Amino acid sequence: MGDYKAAYEILAADLAEQGVDVDAVKEALKRQHIETPSWGYANSGTRFKAFAWPGAATTTEQKLDDAAMVHKMTGIAPSVAVHIPWDRPDNDDYDGMLQYAEERGISIGAVNPNVFQDDEYKLGSLGNPDPAIQERALDHILECCTIMDKLHSDALSLWFADGTNYAGQDNLRARKRRFEGHLATVYDHLPANSRMLIEYKFFEPAFYSTDLPDWGTAYAWSLKLGPQAQVLVDLGHHAQGVNIEQIVTFLLDEGRLGGFHFNNRKYADDDLIVGSVNPYELFLIYNELTGAEVGDDEPAKSTALNVAYMLDQCHNIEGKMAAIIYSVLNCQEAYAKALCVPRAQLADAQAAGEVLDAHRILTDAYRVDVRPLLMQVREEMGVPVDPIAAYKASGYEEKIRKERGVADASGGFQ
Ligand code: PSV
Ligand code: MN
Fold first, then answer.
1. Nearest CA owner, ligand 1 atom 12
2. Pick the CATH number of 33-340 from 3.90.640.10, 3.40.50.1370, 3.20.20.150, 3.40.720.10
């Protein structure tokens, strides 16, 4: 890592000269919050094979231990999203689960119901043609609303595998109405001061139609439901070439951007490490968020300040812990670059119609090597300046390998 202090001083002076408030940048970076997913700590795989990773978590306690370690290394990952029933505690002891997390300095974030894994859901959950199965899915989601209360969670994160594989298989309009009716019931059961995050995905596991395929559907439903319903953007859930940052900025401006599932993909919903394939796209997304955050436009500003940033990734061939730490750091780096955009200069170039000047101002910020700044921020936060190296030196990995051994990977995320 070398001596980052000298590099930091040069960078800070350079940024200040461009009108960037370096103290404000550092404060924003210290407030950053990336939620990690409990399922990211467990073994996972593709439809072809799940390779077991020695030390991978199998119990919720182990996942919470791992999440706490990621937070200890980074300082910006203080919450963990849970998936029910994967994380259902023995005897439904949610108080014990909450206490376990709190003792380790982390909190429980979004609660994710699972209405896609049981045999009954072959033809869907809330969209299933059988009313009894719709009811079963609804009951589970309503139970998750009560679990949110117990875990002090303020977000119900909804993703549905519902859809059809063949034209004519089901009545698409009827499926839409089933969803709308049931989501309204869920909305009525949301705990006070919480929100429902509606995640869309254009295909998979259904290959002909998906009941909640795009942000337009999620947005339309959030409007019908009410202000506690917002859209969740998973970076892997769009067709190739879609301009995600434009979706982000539209939803921000309408006050309906609720959260992210960060990951990266090359082809479909690959769930690779965020920023590993296209860090520029990640920067452009953060640029829209940061622009709203530091600006004065409402509701974009308060919406941006309330976005739930979550990872949703699968580490199939690499160790999980260092990969999750690296993912958090990639989000930190993208945010730092976005905070370095000289917004007044950019606005002037845009207003003057100076196409290339505006583009260069933005891309110059992307090219800033913010690593010395991040090291300085980490030092000020009292976390390791190089979190990956610190993790490797910590002995944590050897410890979990020894204690946990090699878990059966055949159970997928569980
Ligand atoms: C499946 O595509 C998925 O990755 C969705 O993105 C959900 O958010 C996640 O699983 C957890 O249910
Ligand atoms: Mn997701």
1. 159
2. 3.20.20.150
Distance CA(9)–CA(27), nearest Å, equals: 17
Give the distance (Å) from ligand 2 centre to CA of residue 201.
8
Contact 155/202 with Cβ under 8 angstroms? no
Q: In angstroms, what is the span from residue 213 Cα to ligand 1's centroid?
A: 13
Q: For ligand 1, what atom is nearest to the CA of residue 234?
A: 6
Per the CB < 8 A criterion, the answer to whether 204 and 217 are in contact is: no
Indicate which residue's Cα is closest to atom 8 of ligand 1.
Answer: 159
- What does the pLDDT look like over 182-204, one tens digit per residue? 999 999 999 999 999 999 999 99
Ligand at shortest distance from the CA of 204: 1
User: Nearest-CA neighbor of 159 among 103, 109, 201, 99?
Assistant: 201
Handedness of CA 191, 263, 63, 76 (dihedral sign): negative
How wide is the angle at C-alpha 45 spanned by C-alphas 166 and 244, nearest 5°? 65
Q: Which residues of the chain have pLDDT under 50?
A: 411-414
